[in-house]
Amino acid sequence: MERKAFIQLSTIGGIGLTLPMASLLNSCSRKTEPTHSIEFKKLTFDLLKDWCDGMIRVQVLDPSDTKVHGMLKCPACDVVHARSMDAVYPFLHMAKATGEKKYLEAGIAAFEWERNVSLPDGSWSNGLDPKSWNGTTIFGAIALAEALHYYSDLLDDVRHERWKDRLGQAAEFIYEKFTISFTNINYPATAVYGLNLIGRVLNNDSYIKRSKELAEEVRAYFTEPNRLLFGEGKPSDKRSAKGLPAVDLGYNVEESLNSLVMYALHVNDEELLNLITKSLNSHLEFMLPDGGWDNSWGTRQFKWSYWGSRTTDGCQPAFGMMAHKNPALGTAAVRSTELLRRCTADGLLHGGIHYLSHGIKPCVHHTFSHSKNLAVMLDHWDHLPEINTTAPLPRTTADGIKYFAELDTNLFARGDWRGTVTAYDAIYKDGHYRQATGGALSVLYHNRVGLLCAASMAIYKLVEPYNQQPNPGEDFAFTPRVETFKDDVWYSNIFDRAATMTSGDIEGKIRLNAKAQLKSTENEAVTETASDFELTYTCSKDVMRITAKTAQPIKEKTAFVLPIISPTGEKVLQPNPNEITVQKSEGLVSIKANVPLTIKGIPRERTFNMVPGAEAIPIMAFFEETTKEVEISIEVS
Question: Pfam families under this entry (predicted)?
Fold first, then answer.
């Protein structure tokens, strides 16, 4: 494509390369602002501007030192986040939108820093160590391609040609290395869109052809019966002992499905669009009413923040662009953006809902990653389907039980209660990367007071040191559980991947029953004390009840642990030994038990876990040898 024509195309009212020509022509005929979501557009633009300003505040600008010039210095991490060059796209978007030179300078500097992680094969390493992972090249290449497509007119001819040449080098690496089984499914799935986009930007049909080949192959990576995208394991086609595939909600909704939606819309692949629509609708079942994503069970839960996944890009394009198929998908795009706004302070997206209350600094990776998809939304705004929040999210109006067989996971709803119980046994890779399992209550939510329980990793580990923050203070798991310690070894149902579940909904009460053993990280059941437990979760309109019992002798100190999500500042009282209350702004949460309740550590102290980025009150109820049963009720008034 001649550069003159390219520049003219890039200035047509935000029209992109991602939708079929009929949609582009229809959008060009609009003469007024779409009636949908003026407020949503303002929210999106204002948040993106805030993030760009926040990134500028942490950007190092020193042209005399090429090792740091343009780098985004992370306020929280000691490592350099090499993918910070992805910020070139949102920075250039903001430069064009505002006319302010500072954004153009920041964008140019952000990308020029790439020389520090540029490798001879055309890839970019994910860290300063040239031997670090380089598959993330696909994300940097997409950001550069988007920047060149929309905003090449902001660049001088020399820089424009140099950047195009660098994009070509990255494209060759992707073209040569990426297959459907290259690694986790998010990489080839993202390359479906990436290679198509880059092929059009560089006028290279080989890339477009490879994109189509990957798009055909990725169709085999959707589960039955709910069409969830799988492949977030090592290897990507691995199956668990229960025969279940590796699924991660965060990567699916915030990365892979975006790529597939944008590709399918561009090439007008109706078959793929129908498949994606079914998949989006199933993934949507896991969005909580406040916009949080329930990834308590996902194989890559180690990167779960309540709003999504820490180094992915956000769900807005996939859900917003498909709102014409289901208006609730548009609601999800809005609710997610609102939550991102609530988790933003001083121009940076914080990695959880309680970072501020616990004094946790934000990792800049969250901001530069998620800023890209806000720019995508704004660059496609004129041809988005109508987006509003009149269509409720499925979990807002849900009632009853929904079982996901491919996840061995139940979602339940009754009255204002929403929850998840899971016995999903797939893990990301060999080792102790344990998300919630073992028949655990992995999420508990109440429409009035919000999130009450949220599972963490059983043991917090830096599975991806470049992409996770260390956990502050003591590592205390947030997953509600039965536990005991014998000979200094920790045993709990949350290590039992062989747990089984049954469910029923009778006379207004939902009943979920799980049978599990107390096991160690080495998958060995505890001996010489009770190991077999039955966990029953009973939900009625007004009360959530948890019962844990065993028929075996209890010889070791054993407890049911119930961390209640609560930020510092909420008043916690214990009116009697068997009751603890938490005063939230919208209601009083009362936790009662048939045995005395204690709070681990200093009374009313909060513990924090990076998964999902929240504070909790660590409540414990110890079994008594004579009763062998703990019953806890939770009410909101």
Answer: Ulvan_lyase_C, Ulvan_lyase_N
DSSP code string of 371-412? HHHHHHHHHTGGGPPP--S-SPPHHHH--EEEEEGGGTEEEE
* Residue 241 is assigned to a structural domain of this protein: yes
Choose the final residue of a domain: 342, 362, 395: 395
Instruction: Say yes or no: 102 and 179 in one domain.
Output: yes
Helix 270-284 with 327-342: angle, nearest 10 deg: 50
327 and 442 fall within a common domain = no
Question: How far is 571 from 587, CA to CA, in rounded Å?
Answer: 12
Apex 176 CA angle, 170 and 182, nearest 5: 100
Strand 417-422 and strand 440-446: the pairing is: antiparallel
Q: Which two tokens stand for residue 635?
A: 């009410």
DSSP letter at 293?
B
> What is d(CA 584, CA 134) in angstroms, rounded to the nearest whole number?
45
DSSP, res 70: T
Residue 189 in tokens? 């799935």
* Spatial contact of 522 and 539, defined as CB atoms under 8 Å apart: no
Task: Tell me the CATH number at 110.
Answer: 1.50.10.20
Task: Give residue 183's domain range.
Answer: 49-395
Task: Give the list of residues 6+ apart from residue 163 with CB closer than 8 angstroms, or none.
Answer: 111, 144, 147, 148, 155
CB 124 within 8 A of CB 133: no
* Burial of 390 per CB tally in 10 Å (0-12, 13-18, 19+): exposed
Is the bond leading into 225 cis (omega within 30 degrees of zero)?
yes
What is the tens place of the pLDDT at every residue in 358-404? 999 999 999 999 999 999 999 999 989 999 899 999 999 999 999 99
DSSP strand E in 261-372: where? 304-305, 308-309, 344-345, 348-349
Q: Same domain for 482 and 521?
A: yes
User: Which pLDDT score is estimated for 605?
Assistant: 77
DSSP string, 424-458: ----SSSSS---S-SSEEEEEEETTTEEEEE---S
Contact present, 263 and 189 (Cβ < 8 Å): no
What domain count does the chain have?
Answer: 2
Query: Looking at the domain assignment, is residue 28 inside a domain?
Result: no
Tokens of 568: 């510092």
Give CA–CA dist 320/18, Å, rounded. 13
Shared domain check, 350 and 469: no
The string of DSSP letters for 133-201 reads: --TTHHHHHHHHHHHHHHHGGGS-HHHHHHHHHHHHHHHHHHHHH--TTSSSTHHHHHHHHHHHHHHHH
Q: Are residues 269 and 310 in the same domain?
A: yes
Q: What is the CA radius of gyration of the chain?
A: 25
Q: What is the CATH number of the domain that holds 579?
A: 2.70.98.70
* 453 and 344 part of one domain: no
pLDDT in tens, 262-307: 999 999 999 999 999 999 999 999 999 999 999 999 999 999 999 9
In 10 A of CB 583, how many CB atoms? 14
Residues 426 and 501 both lie in one domain: yes
Write the CA distances from 70 to 101, 546, 563, integer angstroms. Answer: 15, 53, 42
Q: Which residues pair with 9 in a beta bridge?
A: none
- For the segment 204-219, the average pLDDT, to the nearest whole number, is 98
Question: Tokens 């662009």 belong to which residue?
Answer: 321
Measured over the CA atoms of residue 303, residue 347, residue 354 and residue 461, the dihedral's sign is positive
